[in-house]
Write the structure tokens for this entry.
Amino acid sequence: MNERQALQRVVAAGAVIPFAAGLYGVLFGVNGLSSGVESVSTDSHFRYLSGLLAGIGILFWTCVPDIEAKGRLFRFLTLVVGLGGLARLLGLYLTGIPSLTMLGALGVELVVTPLLCLWQMRVATKARDAAALPDPGADV
């Protein structure tokens, strides 16, 4: 397996996380995390944000087929995920340490996703460089 295929597999598998978490939030609402929340508005907002999270997963999946050509979208998605991670980090500072699941999500948002973006950039650069090389079998 080459580096491009490895990246495609990792991104395809990794996109399951935001898609599944988002779908869970859409279907079960805020009470899917902690029962007893009575605010309909809080639940509505949570389901909306969960829909956005599922959409992020879907958009990462759209990057997989031509991953070396999807740099702009990949960087945009990384920015969105990173901003969410920074908001989560601020919440950690303001309200305290959340569950291990939320800390894991923070690690994915602020470490794993940017590393995947750097990997995508590396694969894209290699693809561009390979395309720029002259064909050794061609007549000059």
Remarks:
- The two ends are 33 Å apart (CA to CA).
- The CA atoms of residues 10 and 106 lie 18 Å apart.
- The longest helix spans residues 100-132.
